[in-house]
């Protein structure tokens, strides 16, 4: 019989009933019959054979689960169909599920909590191939960071030119420390795959302490990013101990591949200090239309280019959707849509998510996080409050000042930071909706807009608990 403290909590907290919690969250458990059957309708059978030589080498290739596309290591229990021989991993088959939450009882205080199972108690088998992949990823990330620290001051000493006129030589090979495109492709693949594992291990709504910088759209304008690092602080240093990159790393700019690899390297080296939010351009449909796919295939000729592009597309699907800064500032790429959602709704999101999945009705909130826009307070039209249709898509909306303020109140927030839009002759930032919304855009002179590039510095103002947001702006060449 459970103790009295535990029983009292069971009566009050629905979270103790896992089935109830799943129903309330709208999670439908898969049919046991479906899990026990192959796609062909025949039963799945457990399989865990490990050939003798592999017990010594532990370097055989992994299999891919036909349902979730996850890795199945050599000798790891999984399921196969005797007819199709298609592998299904332990989690996707008719197996025992170990919860990633546990019940924590403190007898001294009488407090009972539901907590996430920490990674230190989940022991994972490390194979030689896994260790080699991790080492290759770390090596590539350190190489990129080392060159980044050299490039930034070099660029600052050069004549200031627009990013597409920057005669940089082969920056891609330099960043990766490679002598050929083939060698560069191997380093890039190691870095992308390693970053994907880091992203997948973190929640869909990340959290970071202050001081912290928030970067807006970069769109492959690597030179502007280097100048921002040189002027206002390199990530991982005292001047920039933590930072958030608020989506749209690629498409349109001259150095899209290099920019994405720089950000992935920073994420690998500083997993709890650097955060990458998903933008509407971290999407294969957009990448095929606006240039990222094309420049990858040009940078890595042949089959290597297709492999690198597929790796980037897969990693983008694991990017989180928002970051909570200092507990009071929410950074997301596009906007809040109709605002009728809570932060926990994003925390519960399961990734990966591709373009079609994001457009599904149940993911309307996520689509608007990527695509929605605020209505400016001084807009010429009369409809400056409420929710209205957007020209961007049928699902996306435009939201007024009252939507932002109501959203902040219900979620205990003071400010929403978004990016997504570059304004003609803009400063790189705008303060809107009665100072409850700030837009930040980091790419200068974007698409002929003659705009400045900016980042936001978020830090504690004093001991009162107030947070201060200070824009830091890099002047447009058009206004020089």
TrEMBL record:
Keywords: Hydrolase, Manganese, Metal-binding. The keyword Manganese applies. Pfam families: Metallophos. Belongs to the PPP phosphatase family. SUPFAM superfamilies: Metallo-dependent phosphatases. Its cofactor is Mn(2+). This is Serine/threonine-protein phosphatase. The keyword Metal-binding applies. The lineage of its organism: Eukaryota, Sar, Alveolata, Dinophyceae, Suessiales. Its EC number is 3.1.3.16. Coiled coil: none annotated. It catalyses: O-phospho-L-threonyl-[protein] + H2O = L-threonyl-[protein] + phosphate. Residues 277-282 form the Serine/threonine specific protein phosphatases domain. GO terms for molecular function: metal ion binding; protein serine/threonine phosphatase activity. The gene is BSU1.
């Amino acid at each position: 019989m459970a103790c009295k403290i535990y029983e009292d909590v069971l009566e009050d907290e629905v979270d103790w009933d896992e089935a109830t919690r799943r129903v309330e969250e709208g999670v439908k458990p898969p049919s046991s019959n479906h899990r026990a059957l192959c796609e062909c309708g025949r039963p799945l059978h457990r399989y865990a054979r490990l050939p003798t030589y592999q017990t010594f080498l532990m370097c055989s290739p992994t299999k891919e689960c036909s349902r979730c596309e996850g890795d199945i290591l050599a000798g790891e229990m999984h399921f196969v169909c005797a007819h199709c021989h298609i592998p299904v991993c332990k989690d996707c088959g008719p197996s025992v599920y170990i919860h990633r939450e546990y019940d924590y009882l403190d007898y001294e205080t009488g407090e009972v909590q539901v907590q996430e199972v920490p990674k230190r108690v989940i022991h994972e088998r490390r194979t030689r191939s896994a260790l080699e992949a991790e080492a290759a990823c770390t090596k590539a990330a350190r190489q990129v960071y080392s060159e980044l620290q050299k490039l930034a001051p070099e660029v600052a000493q050069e004549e200031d030119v627009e990013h597409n006129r920057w005669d940089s030589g082969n920056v891609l090979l330099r960043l990766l420390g490679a002598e050929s495109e083939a060698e560069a492709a191997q380093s890039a693949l190691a870095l992308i795959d390693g970053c994907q594992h880091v992203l997948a291990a973190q929640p869909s709504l990340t959290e970071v302490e202050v001081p912290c910088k928030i970067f807006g759209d970069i769109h492959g304008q690597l030179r502007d990013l280097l100048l921002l690092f040189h002027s206002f602080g390199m990530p991982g240093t005292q001047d920039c101990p933590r930072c958030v990159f608020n989506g749209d790393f690629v498409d349109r700019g001259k150095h899209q591949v290099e920019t994405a690899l720089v950000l992935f390297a920073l994420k690998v080296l500083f997993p709890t200090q650097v955060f990458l939010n998903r933008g509407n351009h971290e999407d294969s449909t957009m990448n095929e239309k606006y240039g990222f796919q094309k420049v990858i295939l040009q940078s890595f000729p042949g089959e290597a280019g297709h492999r690198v592009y597929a790796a980037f597309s897969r990693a983008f699907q694991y990017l989180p959707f928002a970051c909570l800064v200092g507990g009071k500032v929410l950074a997301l790429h596009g906007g809040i849509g109709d605002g009728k959602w809570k932060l926990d709704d994003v925390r519960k999101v399961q990734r990966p998510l591709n373009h079609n999945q994001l457009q599904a009705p149940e993911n309307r909130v996520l689509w608007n996080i990527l695509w929605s826009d605020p209505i400016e307070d001084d807009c010429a039209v009369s409809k400056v409050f409420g929710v209205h249709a957007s020209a961007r898509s049928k699902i996306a909306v435009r939201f007024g000042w009252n939507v932002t303020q109501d959203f902040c109140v219900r979620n205990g927030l003071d400010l929403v930071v978004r990016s997504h839009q570059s304004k003609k002759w803009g400063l790189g930032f705008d303060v809107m909706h009665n100072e409850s919304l700030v837009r930040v855009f980091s790419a200068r002179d974007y698409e002929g807009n003659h705009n400045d590039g900016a980042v936001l510095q978020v830090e504690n103002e004093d001991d009162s608990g107030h947070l201060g947001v200070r824009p830091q702006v890099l002047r447009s060449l058009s206004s020089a």
